[in-house]
Amino acid sequence: MAVLIDNIADVPGRPRHPEKAHRPDQPALRKPDWIRVKAPVSAGYLDTRQIVRSNGLHTVCEEAGCPNIGECWEKKHATFMIMGDTCTRACAFCNVKTGLPGALDASEPEHVAAATAKLGLAHVVITSVDRDDLADGGAAHFAAVIRAIRARCPNTTIEVLTPDFLRKDGAAEIVVAAKPDIFNHNLETVPSKYLTVRPGARYFASIRLLQRVKDIDPAMFTKSGIMVGLGEERNEVLQVMDDLRSAGVDFLTVGQYLQPSRKHHPVLRFLPPDEFEALAKIAYAKGFLLVAASPLTRSSHHAGEDFARLKAVRAAR
Q1: What is the pLDDT of residues 230-275, one digit of tens each?
Q2: How far is CA 25 from CA 37, 63, 74, 103, 290, in A?
């Protein structure tokens, strides 16, 4: 069974998801045999956790309860989540804490760069909470983190997984100008599910963000991902693929949604591995340079290896 691990203790009397606290419990389907991960117990996992803690950093691996945390942290791969641990939105699928975030930490870029160096990362993924409270949505902070990593670890390739910067004019330009190696923004689900799954976002705003990145820098790799099992129809998934290809997106990830708690959106279906394989074949036929599709696929899982493959595929064309 997949293990969702909550390493973040809630403050007594303050629920992790206050907006979900009074919702009725949702049904929870029994997980199938093909969703299996090991509980994290290795020395490598503990070393990575110590480096993250000692630098006062947050990771999406912990905050979102990623089932791959044991495998990734054993290899000293971590996805840093910047701008705090509290999100201004309340997506129905997400396990990240919601509420009013605190002020940005001006020392965070240097701490992220230091942790990247200590972990010896050849490829680092930087993501964040949504910061709708900031005038630029946190774009300048992303850029500062990129610059700090470049200064300390010039050979490390950098992948950013950004929010949508909804109604934050110029945010994409700020991040792209800092020259990450790959720009990722996840659509998460099909358009018909946005009001229930991702109510604070707008599907076509996310598509336009990805298109804008390509308009600014056509050579920059772009990436996006969706979850399945939320009640979407197969033809809707195929339409998302077409929309992403129209925006010039190079790399698609497709993974199974796993319900963090009974207060979150329920899993309506567990797709078997052969359906993920079929979706990958269709996506390649539609023109994506790289596709990762499996029950446990996540945006940052095997990100370094996948980026190397992505570069090789482009170079071969």
Answers
A1: 999 999 999 999 999 999 999 999 999 999 888 899 999 999 999 9
A2: 25, 21, 34, 33, 38
State the residue for tokens 């929870």: 28
Q: What percent of the chain has pLDDT over 70?
A: 87
Query: What's the chain's average pLDDT?
Result: 89
- Kindly state the tokens that stand for 217: 């820098």
CA distance 238 to 268: 19
Residue 231 sits at the vertex; the CA angle it makes with 228 and 234, to the nearest 5 degrees, is 65
All residues at 6 or more sequence positions from 208 whose CB lies less than 8 Å from its CB, including other chains: 247
Annotate 193-224 with b (16+ C-beta within 10 A) or e (fewer). Answer: bbeebbeebebeebbebbbbbbeebeebbbbb
Q: How many CB atoms lie within 10 A of CB 87?
A: 24
Helix H, strand E, coil C: the string for 36-77 is CCCCCCCHHHHHHHHHHHHCCCEEHHHHCCCCCHHHHHHCCC
CA 228/CA 269 separation, integer angstroms: 8
Bridge partners of 128, per DSSP, are 82
Instruction: Give the integer Cα–Cα distance in Å for 165 and 130.
Output: 8
Distance CA 90, CA 310 (A): 33
In this predicted structure, the answer to whether residue 140 has a pLDDT above a threshold of 90 is: yes
For residue 263, the model assigns a pLDDT of: 86
CA distance 302 to 228: 19
The pTM for the full model equals 0.89
DSSP character string of 101-165: -----TTHHHHHHHHHHHHT-SEEEEEE---TTSTTTTHHHHHHHHHHHHHH-TT-EEEEE----
